[in-house]
Amino acid sequence: MPAPLMDTYSPPDLVFTHGEGAYLFDDKGGKHLDFIAGIAVNSLGHAHPKAVAALKAQADKLWHLSNMFRIPGQVELAKKYCDATFAERVFFTNSGTEAIECALKTARRYHFSNGRPDRYRIISFTGAFHGRSYGAINAGGNPKYLEGFGPRMEGFDQVEFGDLEAVKTAITEETAAIIIEPVQGEGGLRAASDAFLRGLRALCDEHGLLLIYDEVQSGAGRTGRLFAHEWSGAAPDIMAVAKGVGGGFPMGACLATEAAGKVMVVGTHGTTFGGNPLAMAVGNAVFDELTAPGFMDRVVEVGNFLGQQLHGLADAHAGLVQEVRGRGLLLGLKLDESKIANRDFAALARARGLLIGAAGDNVARLAPPLIITENHAREAVEKLDAALHAVTQKA
Question: Are residues 142 and 285 in the same domain?
Answer without folding.
Answer: yes
